[in-house]
Amino acid sequence: MHQGERCNVAVAADFTGDGKVDVISNSGGKTRLFVAPDWRAYVIDDTKGHNFIHGETFDVDGDGDPDFIGARYKPGLVAWFECPANPLKDEWKMRVADDELIGIHGVLKADVDGDGRLDLLANSGQPLGKFPNSAAWLKVPKNPRKAKRWKRFIFADKDAPGLSHYLGYGDLNGDGRVDLTLAAKGGPSDKSGMGEWFAWWEASKDPTQPFKKHLLPGKHPGATNIQPADVNGDGKLDVIASRGHGKGLVWFESPTWKIHDVNTELLSPHCLQVVDMDGDGDVDAATCAYVSKVAAWFENDGKGNFTTHVVSDDQAAYDIRAIDMDGDEDLDLLIAGQLSHNVVWYENPLK
User: Fold this and answer.
1) Distance (Å, rounded) from C-alpha 299 to C-alpha 306?
2) How does 59-69 read in b/e, with b if 16+ C-beta sit within 10 Å?
3) Which residues contact 7 (CB under 8 A, 6 or more apart)?
4) 253 forms bridges with which residues in the sheet?
5) Is the peptide bond before 37 cis (omega within 30 degrees of 0)?
6) Is 8 left (phi over 0), alpha (psi -120 to 50) or beta?
7) Distance CA 154, CA 177 (A)
8) Residue 351's pLDDT band (boundaries 50, 70, 90)?
9) Which pLDDT tens digit goes with each residue over 87-124?
10) Alpha carbon of 270 to those of 19, 99, 158, 286: distances in Å?
11) Contact 11, 68 (CB under 8 A)
């Protein structure tokens, strides 16, 4: 689809309204729309400094088409681009959602307050600025086209040190509220020495107030990705996690959070999708490890025992998405290849 440039993020949706899934990615200082099925590229933004390392897509303004959200690490910036009536010719107007979070190393859409509208999770992973070592959820304004900024609510209030990374969500304690998850890599660049953890934040009765942090067991050098899911089919949400600046993937079994291995060999699995890859009704996982240069998915037997299936042994990534790219009703894998300098997708052979 695209090659020759370092790429950290790729998202997919039908941006052109023709029933086919397109891709938006950022590399080389440009944000491009790749139009299916021949993947012709259209530059939708080349503003200096718009080097987005994370992204999301959903209908921000409620007009029926998907918009693009890009996030820059430092100086922090969350910007959304309105999908125009003619996405191949008209301007994708950019508006700022937030510019005070610093160290944004993950954005994720979720309905945090239960109002039926999508919000956006984002971390503020640097020990700097107004919200050091924190994480937030951003509420889309009623009129996002006119709003100066989105409403920001800090759920992790200075209690996420250690260079935090990606986010997740789910009702982990069964109280009907949306809890949030986060990880912190630690390591030599973590001057606080307080990283190397996976954790979840228990939702407050009032979701606009800070949540309560719960550390998961163990010390996890290089911890990055964490997603709630019912791994063993017992009706309780467990957690699947990867050490994207370390080694391997694990899952934590609720309610005691006993640790189980998913894979012990992959180096730097710095992305994670938790979905049913093989259509058998249980939750599997997928990643791409940038040091090992292996893209893989992990088949769950329904009880939490995982088998590794290699998708590619020559692909490095920073971002992975499980989405039906070709309309055959199974999940394919879209990968933004940071060190592979490409954007590629792998077709699921299920159908």
Assistant:
1) 5
2) ebbeeebbbbb
3) 25, 26, 27, 318, 336, 337, 338, 341, 342, 343
4) 258
5) yes
6) alpha
7) 16
8) confident
9) 999 999 999 999 999 999 999 999 999 999 999 999 99
10) 31, 25, 24, 11
11) yes
3-state secondary structure of 44: strand
Q: Are 248 and 266 in contact (CB under 8 A)?
A: yes
As a whole number of Å, the end-to-end CA separation of the chain is: 22
Other beta carbons less than 10 A from residue 312's beta carbon: 18
Check: pTM over 0.85? Answer yes or no: yes
* Residues 6 or more apart whose Cβ sits within 8 Å of residue 15: 22, 24, 33, 35, 65, 66, 68, 83, 87
**Which amino acid does the sequence have at 330?**
D
For residue 80, the Cα-to-chain-centroid distance in whole angstroms is 16
DSSP 50: -
Residue written as token pair 């600046």: 245
